[in-house]
């Protein structure tokens, strides 16, 4: 009897070893246990996401990092999803990073990345540090295994532009946003990296699709439009507003673009697209609206191909240029 007992115990022990070995054979080795191939320090990247169908039939939403300046568009598959979700919650907000990595990845992929259809330039621009690791035969990764150590936000992106001695007139010109100016006319804040093509235009004539605004009794009322990645709408055409020229370098705003707050609240896809923009983009949009505030007088000056507009009441001024 004792002999059979020892046999049973030995058989059970051997089975547990086999099960442990089998488990190790079906699970990829953790990133931090693998050999480091390349150390990356503060490299610029786009934060992307993908819908991944795994071998076992499960569907996961995984984060990707696409390096800016890497040859062959190097793609990294990072670990540390908790860090990424915390980061998204801070720089996008609206609950993205508060419900765990699985929901966070799905939200970023479906809303912010619009199921992968938005341009990478609209993705969060980040600065990453970490180690590229060796691959494992059991990996199901799109990119190289990346042990993510640090993740920062690239807050501002400088626009390449050239100042010219001559330029177009104030109206019927597309003016591109360069940045905000301080009291010494120095640029202290440039466009957000996720919204680098912000434009402002002024015109006399109504175009197809414009709303039928009431001109408030002013026959000289004209149209202006601020365009970019951020939009707010209550009805079709609400992006177009009214202004009137007071003199050669002043205008008055009749109808203003809806100002935002740092946390506009729940998003409605028919009304706004807050959840598909970084907080930095929203804040800069808000500051531009503070210049073009309803019922305020706005000063402007043109020098060559540059336009400077400022609101003395809010104390904010911005620089634009024509391409």
UniProtKB/TrEMBL annotation:
PROSITE patterns: PROKAR_LIPOPROTEIN. This is Lipoprotein.
């Amino acid at each position: 009897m004792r002999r059979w007992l020892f046999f049973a115990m030995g058989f059970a022990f051997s089975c547990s070893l086999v099960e442990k070995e089998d488990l190790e054979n079906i699970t990829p080795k953790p990133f931090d246990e693998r050999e480091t191939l390349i150390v990356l320090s503060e490299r610029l990247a786009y934060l992307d996401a993908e819908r991944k169908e795994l071998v076992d039939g499960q569907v996961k939403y995984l984060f990707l990092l696409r390096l800016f300046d890497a040859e062959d568009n190097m793609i990294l598959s990072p670990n540390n999803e908790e860090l990424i979700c915390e980061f998204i919650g801070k720089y996008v907000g609206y609950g993205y990073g508060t419900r765990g990595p699985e929901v966070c990845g799905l939200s970023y992929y479906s809303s912010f990345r619009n199921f992968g259809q938005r341009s990478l330039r609209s993705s969060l621009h980040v600065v990453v540090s970490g180690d590229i690791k060796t691959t494992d035969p059991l990996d199901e990764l799109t990119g190289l295994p990346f042990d993510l150590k640090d993740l920062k936000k690239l807050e501002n992106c400088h626009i390449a532009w050239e100042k010219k001695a001559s330029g177009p007139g104030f109206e019927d010109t597309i003016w591109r946003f360069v940045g905000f100016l301080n009291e010494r006319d120095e640029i202290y804040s440039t466009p957000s990296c996720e919204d680098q093509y912000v434009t402002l235009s002024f015109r006399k004539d109504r175009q197809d699709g414009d709303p039928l605004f009431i001109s408030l009794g002013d026959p000289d009322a004209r149209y202006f439009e601020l365009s970019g990645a951020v939009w707010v709408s209550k009805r079709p055409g609400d992006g177009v507003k009214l202004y009137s020229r007071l003199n050669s370098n002043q205008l008055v705003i009749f109808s203003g673009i809806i100002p935002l707050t740092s946390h506009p609240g729940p998003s409605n896809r028919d009304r706004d697209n807050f959840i598909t923009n970084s907080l930095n983009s929203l804040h800069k949009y808000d500051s531009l609206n503070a210049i073009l505030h309803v019922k305020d007088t706005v000063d402007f000056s043109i020098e060559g191909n540059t336009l400077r507009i400022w609101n003395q009441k809010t104390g904010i001024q911005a620089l634009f240029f024509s391409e």
